[in-house]
Every structure is written in C-alpha cells, then in structure tokens.
Amino acid sequence: MLSTQSPRLLVLNKEDATLAIVDPSSGKILGTVPVGQGPHEVVASTDGKWAFASNYGTGPAPGHTISMIDLAAKKELRRVDVTPLSRPHGVAFVNGKLYFTAEANKKIARYDPAADKIDWEFETGQNGTHMVLPTKDARTIFTSNIGSDSVSAIQQDAGGAWTQTVIAVGKGPEGIDLSPDGKTVWSAHSRDGGVSVIDVASKKVTQTINAGTTRSNRIHLTPDGKFALISDLDAGDLVVLDAAARKEIKRLPLGRMPEGILIPPDGSRAFVAVNGDNHVAVIDLKTWQVISKISTGTGPDGMAWIR
After folding, report:
1. What number is the average pLDDT over the span 94-106?
2. What is the sign, positive or negative, of the torsion defined by CA atoms of 257, 244, 210, 252?
3. Residue 219 — φ and ψ, nearest 5°?
4. How large is the greatest C-alpha to C-alpha distance in the chain, in angstroms?
5. SS (H, E, C) 98-111
6. Predicted confidence (pLDDT) at residue 4 exceeds the cutoff of 60
7. DSSP E strand stretches across 83-161
C-alpha cells in the first residue's frame, strides 16, 4: 500500500496512451504505465492501491475497456472489457465500486473489481452521457449529458429502485462538480459560456452564471467551497469564479487547450492539464500564479490524487 506520507499525482496522457505517476512536490515522474487507446479520465480506489483509467478510444475506433492499475507495482493489473458498452469516459470510485459512463450507449454502469464484473447498469436515454458524479453514499448519481443539454439526477429509493430526473441546463454541459457541502451541483456549459447551479434537494437550476467561457471543459470547486475553477479549452484560460458571489474574479492564461483540473484536499494548489502544450500547470491558489509546470507526456488530460 502506498505511504500516506507521500501523495501522488496521477496523469493520463491521451496521445501516448499512458498513465504517469508523479511526485507532486518535485514534479518527478516516478513511473509510466501503458493503458488502452485514448484514455480520458482516471480515478483511484479509496485505499490508494489501484487506479482505473477509462480507455475512450480514438475518433475512428471507439474504446471498450477500462485499465485497472496496480500503483505500487506500477503496472496494469487487468484491462477490463466492458463490451457491449462503448466509449467509457467519466469515472468515480465509491464504496469499493467503480462507476463509469458509457457514452455511446447513453448509460452509466458499475464495475466491481473484487468480483471482476459489471454488476449494475442504468440507461439515461440522454445523448453524450459524459461525466459521472455520485454523492458520498452513492444513492444519488449525477451525469452531464453534452448532446442533450441536460444533467441527470439518478436516485435510488428505499426499496432499491432507481429513478431519473432530467434537468435542463445550457448548451453542451460537460464539466460538473458537487459543492463540498453537498448542496449544489455546478454544471459548466461548453457551448454558451454559462454555468448552471443546481439545488441537490429540489433537483432544479437555481441560478445560471455567465462565466464568459469560449468552450469550457471542466469545473471544480475548491475544498473550502469558496471558488469554482473552469478550464476554457478554446480560450486557453483558467477562469475563477467566486462561488458565493457567483461571478468571475480571475482569468489566468495557461496555454493551448487546458482540460483536466485537480485540486488536492488541502486546497493549496490546483493542477491543470494543458493538453496542447503537453504539461500540467501547477497553480498557487493563494496568489493565483503558475508556480511550476510538469511534463508528463503527450496530451495530458484526466488526473487523480493519491493520499
């Protein structure tokens, strides 16, 4: 098991089809593990032993596998074939299970690594079900559905049955995050520059913020809930919103195609994958300055944190 004294940053390199294991303090690459083609998103197991990478595939060749990586050994333990599901993308790990979207099938599914099988599926019926966001108890799961301009709230009742509420948002919702207090979901629209704030209890949009993004990719709130960070893929910026005031306070130019955002639990830094420039920008969240750049490979995107 990985030491709790030495955090690790995991970075997927889409073009190289690799997972880089990084010392976040020094920026040193500790290991590189081959995964499937076009890996997009990565998550670690709660105990820090495993990582799971969704192998989305390339344009002409849809992916249908998820790589399970042994982080201590720095090698792929197994490549899970999720066929007939295709285009696995968003991933989340809760209660020992991996939740993932199957974008081509308009579904989310759950993989049990102990049993090595998919034990649950749910069809959203929405186009481009892209990111998956379970609550801590995994009784409510949110998805962003790019092609249907919606967010799904999928909830399990006391009897175990699952029902879906489809919430209309702006154009092209892609990035999605849950506020630290669990009360609101933030959905960044990739095609109209807006952000929908959704009340978890009522499953309704309570406010739409004009974030002025050209093509937002990801949104993440800081652990204290004070700020929302949005990567603007086309503009090359990181847009910072004051979460309480619901307005932009900062815009940092980062380079070509910033995509994935990761904020460690201590909230001191943000890591942003600058896909087009092949590095991860490290941002001090007190000074809002880029303090270093980490070269992990070609086309960095999805990231995860190991404590």
Report:
1. 97
2. negative
3. -135, 135
4. 51
5. EEEEEHHHCEEEEE
6. no
7. 88-94, 97-102, 107-112, 117-123, 129-134, 140-145, 150-156
User: Which residues lie below 8 Å from residue 274, measured CB to CB, with a gap of 6+?
Assistant: 254, 255, 256, 257, 258, 259, 280, 281, 293, 300
Q: Is the pTM of this model over 0.85?
A: yes
The pLDDT > 90 percentage for the chain reads: 96
Q: Is 293 exposed, middle or buried (0-12, 13-18, 19+ CB in 10 A)?
A: middle
Average pLDDT over every residue of 178-207: 97
Smallest Cα–Cα separation from 101: which of 35, 196, 174? 174
Helix, strand, or coil (residue 149): coil
Scan for tokens 């993004």, then name that residue: 213
Rounded-to-integer distance, Cα 264 and Cα 283, Å: 11
CA 291 to chain centre: 23
Report the percentage of the chain scoring pLDDT > 70. 98
The pLDDT of residue 6 is above 90: no
Task: Decide: 236 and 258 in contact? Cβ < 8 Å.
Answer: yes
Model confidence at 114: pLDDT above 50? yes
d(CA 69, CA 52): 6
Q: Is 55 exposed, middle or buried (0-12, 13-18, 19+ CB in 10 A)?
A: buried
